[in-house]
């Protein structure tokens, strides 16, 4: 009895040692009503409803679920308009509001670098900036969640503290939650969680959702020796720029627990701020090299759906070589867990990243799931005026538009630009990945 309790409360790594000798993972019996269970690392307790206090998220009555991705807003960062940072913040918030009007999404996912912490001079300044950015969502009552980036671990902020701010300013709308203790690397890597999207609004909590949204935290940024603007040049304790290996163990356990509970795992859409190394290999290796767009390649023939140039990809490809996680495949453990573990038994619609503001393409990756499907990789689109930026890159939001009838196989993806233009519309499915 005590051994069980200890086993279920220890960290994932240790919990592996608590397996019975026949090799089966220790497993607590499932209760009839699983709503309200809390996640714990290494616990074999299933968490079928991680949001007992928040509204259930679902496809609408027409069977549609539209998700808008905002990315790299870099609030407080006036490098494009140093004379007036408040203008930059206000313009970014106005841009966010314009995308909500244009697209009416059911959910928003922010893909990281919400703020530029290095430009902050106090915690209240950070909180005000986060509030300004998310106010259009709060006004429109749109649920959202976040994975944070390298600039979100800096002066007066960590990934965990920014999640706390979200829950304070939008207690009924923020679905961002902290990774269980021992998973992800602490406050600078806390954004490891999944969000269930049910098929209908009256679905039973804890039953099999139609779609899972995963946030996986790529950490990075700096830990401060001391907090404060004066420490700006003395704060260089760098944090590893890749998803912590503990996340791989958690992914395997969580996804196999969920598969056991639901029979089959729902399809997934996966967000990580810094792109994984497959983005680099796609950008650099044949047959994709120099064929995945870029400003000079934004010709009509390079847009998806145009069979006259099936081997070219649309999309801005200005950050080349792009910056990816780690420098030697340190991101492989979580990618293996995703593709070879239970998540890979269902459709992985895309691995979505930001970080490289000059890129906005989707392409097939070198990663194949246990189901034998090639995993698509997608850049988000840089949103708002903060951070490095060039006029001709434009700004925007990447949209994933799901339909309940096709959610097991495909999703319609496109970018809505600040100029209003809708571009790169693509149906991401396995046929698309193989044709290219
Ligand atoms: C800075 O922007 C704010 C908000 O738009 C505006 O009220 C203010 O006049 C601007 N200040 C300067 C110096 O341009
Ligand atoms: C931080 O910067 C803002 C805007 O420049 C300023 O109003 C505020 O007084 C500063 N706060 C501190 C603690 O220095
Ligand atoms: C959140 O929802 C609860 C329960 O419906 C309600 O009592 C509370 O006022 C809401 N809070 C906000 C900030 O909207
Ligand atoms: C397809 O590509 C060809 C060759 O670049 C171009 O002439 C044509 O206009 C494109 N069609 C569409 C629908 O974009
Ligand atoms: C996760 O599971 C996959 C599939 O069984 C396995 O290949 C991988 O090594 C596991 N990763 C970890 C960190 O346990």
Automatic annotation (TrEMBL):
The keyword Zinc does not apply. InterPro entries: Calcineurin-like_PHP (IPR004843), Metallo-depent_PP-like (IPR029052). Residues 305-315 have a biased composition (Polar residues). GO terms for cellular component: cytoplasm. Residues 1-23 form the signal peptide. Residues 66-166 form the Calcineurin-like phosphoesterase domain. Keywords: Signal. Residues 296-334 are annotated as: Disordered. GO terms for molecular function: hydrolase activity, acting on ester bonds. This is Metallo-dependent phosphatase.
């Amino acid at each position: 009895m005590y051994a069980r309790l200890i086993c279920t409360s220890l960290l994932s790594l240790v919990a592996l040692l608590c397996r019975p000798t026949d090799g089966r993972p220790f497993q607590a019996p499932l209760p009839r009503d699983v709503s309200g269970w809390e996640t714990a690392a290494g616990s074999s307790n299933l968490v079928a409803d991680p949001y007992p206090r928040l509204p259930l998220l679902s496809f609408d009555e027409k069977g549609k679920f539209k998700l808008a991705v905002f990315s790299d807003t870099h609030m407080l960062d006036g490098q494009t308009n140093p004379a007036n940072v408040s203008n930059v913040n206000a313009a970014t918030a106005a841009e966010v509001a314009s995308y909500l009007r244009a697209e009416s999404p059911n959910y928003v996912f922010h893909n990281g670098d919400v703020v530029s912490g290095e430009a902050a001079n106090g915690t209240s300044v950070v909180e005000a900036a986060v509030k300004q950015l998310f106010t259009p969502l709060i006004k429109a009552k749109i649920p959202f969640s976040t994975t944070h980036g390298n600039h979100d671990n800096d002066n007066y902020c960590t990934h965990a503290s920014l999640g706390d701010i979200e829950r304070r300013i939008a207690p009924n709308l923020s679905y961002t939650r902290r990774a269980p203790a021992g998973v992800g690397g602490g406050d600078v890597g806390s954004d490891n969680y999944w969000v269930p999207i049910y098929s209908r609004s009256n679905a039973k909590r804890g039953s099999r959702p139609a779609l899972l949204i995963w946030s996986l935290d790529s950490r990075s940024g700096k830990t401060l020796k001391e907090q404060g603007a004066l420490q700006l040049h003395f704060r260089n304790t760098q944090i590893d720029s890749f998803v912590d290996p503990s996340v791989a163990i958690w992914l395997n356990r969580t996804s196999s627990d969920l598969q056991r509970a639901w029979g089959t795992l729902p399809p997934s859409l996966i967000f990580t701020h810094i792109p994984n190394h497959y983005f680099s290999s796609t950008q650099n290796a044949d047959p994709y090299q120099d064929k995945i767009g870029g400003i000079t390649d934004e010709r009509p023939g390079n847009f998806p759906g145009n069979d006259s140039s099936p081997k070219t990809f649309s999309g801005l490809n200005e950050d080349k070589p792009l910056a990816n996680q780690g420098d030697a495949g340190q991101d492989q453990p979580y990618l293996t867990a995703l593709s070879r573990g239970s998540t890979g038994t269902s459709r992985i619609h895309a691995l979505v990243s930001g970080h490289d503001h000059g890129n906005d393409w989707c392409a097939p990756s070198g990663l194949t799931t246990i189901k034998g499907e090639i995993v698509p990789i997608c850049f988000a689109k840089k949103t708002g005026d903060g951070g490095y930026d060039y006029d001709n890159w434009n700004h925007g939001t990447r949209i994933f538009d799901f339909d309940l009838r096709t959610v097991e196989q495909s999703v319609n993806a496109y970018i809505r630009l600040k100029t209003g233009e809708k571009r790169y519309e693509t149906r991401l499915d396995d046929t698309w990945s193989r044709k290219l």
